[in-house]
Amino acid sequence: MEKKLEKNPKQTIFSLLTTRKLPVPALKDTLRKLKNRIRAVGSNNKEKMEEFDKALDEFSKNQGIILQSRLLLSAKNTNNWLYDYQLDHDFLKKRDPLICQSSYYTLMNFKFKTCTEAVVKLILSQIFLKNNVVNNNIKELTKLDTYQYFFLFHTCRIPYKNLDELITFEYNQNKHVILLYKGVFWMINVSFDYNVIYQQIEYILMLNVSDKKSTRHIFGKLTGFEDRNNWADFRHKFINFSPKNKIFIDYIEQSLILICIEDKKSTDFISISDFSKYCWFGGDDEEGPNRYFDKVVQYVCFQDGYVAINFDNSALDFSMSFEVIKFIKDICEKGDGLLIDENKDGN
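Above: the chain's sequence. Below: its structure in token form.
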């Protein structure tokens, strides 16, 4: 049954911003700070600094006044003019591939015993973290601003012509995880039952062990390495070609999290550099990497228990990667008893 695409206004990036309006600094204050920054790095070149001072003075009397008035007018219609501008112009309006534009990865500083254990405990820890976010307990777990935690779950970049949209889908209606193994997408419903999830993961891995000719989807290339307008056109044609295609995309985009299971070990790479590139790019396979970069969080699990996390910077700052890793590590170190509870519902 198709799940309705639904934007939750309480969990979108704009509504989570502070209601206190961000003031616009005076033009002279902005230019004074700019001059101080430039002098800090270029004070040894007297001639260049004189040219800069002259150009800055000219700017303050002409273009600067025009741009400042436009900024003041724009700021009247938003609470945070700086964040809105950065989100649109630095991320969502850019048509460069996401790999070049806003993707980054972090390798966990600990490993699991097996790949299956890594996948199961990632799912369980994320259900636990999501419940803390939903129940407004997240402030007890971090000293950072908590609004970005909402984008760890059910969040995806949706490509459109000339502009992407960052959407967090309905938390309560979407209780599934997407697994990506050898280019094949799998959907499993989540719960706190460790054994049930473990058996499902084992089944998926065993089913594909000898499947050397599994057909890879090309979404890894399209979402990560393609011009955003080209991907937007393809996505539009794909979901309109068949209702089944739309259901397929909906399940991916609305999922709790996406986990990419690799058939490699960390020791298969000849250097740390090669391993790092694989964690980030997903390899150089001509059929496309085992990824779906529009999901703002992708967990990449290797067969020897190592895990990397691929984030999209439009939704999550770099500091969030350390927060997530610390949370997963703390939960796992407290023991399986905290994670395994068959009476709890993974919502």
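Residues 27-77 form one domain.
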